[in-house]
Amino acid sequence: MKIFYSDVMINVTCAVIRNEDDEVLIVQRGEATDHPYKWEFPGGKIIPGESDEDCIIREVEEELSMEIVICGRLPEVEYDYRIKQIRLIPFICDTLDELPLLTEHLAYKWVLPEDLGSVDFSEADVLVADSYKDKIGVKMNHEEVTVKQSAQSEPADDDLQAMINNLIRTKEVEWIATSAIENPSVLKKLFEYSYSSDRKLAFHASWALTKVGDRYPEMINPYLPSIIDSLGKLNNDSTQRSFLRILSLCDMNILSHKNHGILADYCFSMLKSGFSTIAAKAYSMEILYKLAIIYPELANELAATIRILQDEKSAGILARGRIIIKKLKAGFSDPPADLSM
Fold first, then answer.
1. Cβ(217)–Cβ(209) under 8 Å?
2. Cα-Cα end-to-end distance for the chain
3. Is 338 left (phi over 0), alpha (psi -120 to 50) or beta?
4. Which residues 6+ apart lie within 8 Å of 254 measured at CB?
5. What's the alpha-carbon Rg for the chain, to the nearest Å?
6. What is the pLDDT tens value at each position of the chain, 341 positions in all?
7. Domain map of the chain by residue range?
8. d(CA 327, CA 289)
């Protein structure tokens, strides 16, 4: 039986935010707070009329100036701190933006899941951390067996979709990628699912394709023209993110002049748009850098476009912009005059 000392339940969301190394972001509360100097997962109170998902995206943007992609949800946690009773709604999220701008917290750090147990968390966040560790631990063992089996035989479509929909950790995605590398039919289905109207299935399938591309880019190369053609038609930011990541790592010299033109136009539109995601901007910069090496006349336009991004709140985008400018300067024996930021 639960005993609560406070009569008012406060609904709060929090985000278990992961980077590409599977590390998790935690932030430290300030002195003049209910839990001074304790660590927690970022988040905040739900505004009346706001969905849980909209709340966590808004809170992370306001507190950290970061953009996240929601990948899953953990069980809710109810905890009574005597001074307040909260219902904590945790989400598992991914991000490319690894340099938060702190507005409410003292510090941040990225920690491995196995190290969460040694963090001095607020009590409710301890339960969220335990829940996250349990979830990824149980699923890793289950998915390893299932994916190895599917790599050896023709997987049933429903079974493969269910498996992909349940992905939660990078290691599991790598097992799916291994299956696709060993079984061409799985690779073909991953591309098919990436265009699905089921947004979660499309996100996870395209995520797995990035892992295939990391290890065996030559397996992805035949699909690159169709990926480029699809960019302007995608209505799934997560699939767009994965496809742009694949393109940012590919050898631009194997693509046609027509593909280069389509890709350059699209990436410039992503950088100039006020609605494109941080991930789209980050990968677009890298793609345009590679194209500028082939077409030097693009260098000044890219530099000018990056300078416009100085008003961005994202520290990650600003840092990436400076890196691209530096790479552009180093990439030319006689750098174009306008390469400055």
1. no
2. 61
3. alpha
4. 221, 224
5. 22
6. 444 445 678 999 999 999 877 899 999 999 888 889 999 999 999 999 999 999 999 999 899 988 888 888 999 999 988 888 999 999 999 887 777 888 889 999 999 998 999 999 999 999 999 999 988 874 444 444 455 454 455 566 788 888 887 776 677 788 888 889 989 999 999 999 999 999 889 988 998 999 899 889 999 999 999 999 999 999 888 899 899 999 999 999 999 999 999 999 999 999 998 888 888 888 999 999 999 999 999 999 999 999 888 766 666 777 788 889 888 888 665 555 555 54
7. 9-136, 139-331
8. 8
Under 8 Å between Cβ of 95 and 68: yes
139-331 belongs to CATH 1.25.10.10: yes
What is the torsional sign of CA 289, 292, 297, 298? Answer: negative
Total residues belonging to the chain: 341
Two structure tokens written together for 75: 């069980």
Q: Which CATH architecture has domain 9-136?
A: Alpha-Beta Complex (3.90)
Q: Which residues pair with 27 in a beta bridge?
A: 40, 108
Tracing tokens 């980077």 back to the chain, one arrives at 19
Q: Which of 312, 224, 231 is nearest to 266 (CA)?
A: 231
- DSSP-assigned beta bridge partners for residue 121: 39
d(CA 57, CA 52): 9
